[in-house]
């Protein structure tokens, strides 16, 4: 039976989890309250690191992650002192958890399915286009980006005024932004997360997505990190096959297929 391990940080977890890219990039500033590891899976109870509430993150084969979540809840991971308010697990694990977990999460949101991708190297196979980097803290830039996203990515979840944004990379034509991507730091010293990739519908099919991605990745890799190696990473909805093909074509790795839920 897996035993909980107390660990101060992700980098204190047992191998290979202490260097696992998603854990390091997304939770590298969190405190690991406890962790449960099996032969091929891990569930960690984390808090802090810029997150508003404690939660569970589980990686590995879905059935093994589900078994560890059951164990974590049985061991009191959902206790009052650090009550779990969200969980991100390998896709399929939610379907395999036991009745106690199902009961405790009955009122939570429906699973949001997404993929985590990353790169530690410059992108490849990119067409050349002039790309500008814009300062994210400029109100004029925020207004221009908002207008561009209305055309290029109206469902983008990161607002142009998000204070975590490090910048926007854009392609202009005739003075108008026609392609863009942003990068933000979820916590200081962690690898940046790319957000809100979009190309104006009238300018698609010309390699502009690859151009802004390549420029953003180049700059992200040049920034030093305090936890983990330089990298750029992103999350995309599981159903977004078009974007996934773009990312894979240019060198991103599909790291994890995940499902997230939170308490309402």
Structure description:
The protein is of the alpha+beta class and 264 residues long. The protein has two domains: 112 residues, no CATH class; 99 residues, Gcn5-related N-acetyltransferase (GNAT) (Aminopeptidase, 3-Layer(aba) Sandwich), CATH 3.40.630. The strands form two sheets. It has an eight-stranded mixed β-sheet. Strands 7-8-9-10 form a four-stranded antiparallel β-sheet. The two termini are 32 Å apart. The model has no long low-confidence stretch (mean pLDDT 93).
The global form is elongated
Number of structural units classed as domains: 2
Distance between the termini: 32 Å
Number of helices: 6
Low-confidence stretches: none
Task: Indicate the structural class.
Answer: alpha+beta
Biggest pleated-sheet summary: 8 strands, mixed
Mean pLDDT: 93
Oligomeric state of the chains present here: single chain
Q: What integer value in Å does the Rg equal? A: 19 Å
The succession of helices and strands, N to C, reads EHEEEHEHEEHEEEHEHE
Strand order of the largest sheet: 1-2-3-4-5-12-6-11
**How much β-strand is present in the residues?**
25-35%
Helical content (DSSP H or I, runs of 4+): 10-25%
Total strands: 12
């Amino acid at each position: 039976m897996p035993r909980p391990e107390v660990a101060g940080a992700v980098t204190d977890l047992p191998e290979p989890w202490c260097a696992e890219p998603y854990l390091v990039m997304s939770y590298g500033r969190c405190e690991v309250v406890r962790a449960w590891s099996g032969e091929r899976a891990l569930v960690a109870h984390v808090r802090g690191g810029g997150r508003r509430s404690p939660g569970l993150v589980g990686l590995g084969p879905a059935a093994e992650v589900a078994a560890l979540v059951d164990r974590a809840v049985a061991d009191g991971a959902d206790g009052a002192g650090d009550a779990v308010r969200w969980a991100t697990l390998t896709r399929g694990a939610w379907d395999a958890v036991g009745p106690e977990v199902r009961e405790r999460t009955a009122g939570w949101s429906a699973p949001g399915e997404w993929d985590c991708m990353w790169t530690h190297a410059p992108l490849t196979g990119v067409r050349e286009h002039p790309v500008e980097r814009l300062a994210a803290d400029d109100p004029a830039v925020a207004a221009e980006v908002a207008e561009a996203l209305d055309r290029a990515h109206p469902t983008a979840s990161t607002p142009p005024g998000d204070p975590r944004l490090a910048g926007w990379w854009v392609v202009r034509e005739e003075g108008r932004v026609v392609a863009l991507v942003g990068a933000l730091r979820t916590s200081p010293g962690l690898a940046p997360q790319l957000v809100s990739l979009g190309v104006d519908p009238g300018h698609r099919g010309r390699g502009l997505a690859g151009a802004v991605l390549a420029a953003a990745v180049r700059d992200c890799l040049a920034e030093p990190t305090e936890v983990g190696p330089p990298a750029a990473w992103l999350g995309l909805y599981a159903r977004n096959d078009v974007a996934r093909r773009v990312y894979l074509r240019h060198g991103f790795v599909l790291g994890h297929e995940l499902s997230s839920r939170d308490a309402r």
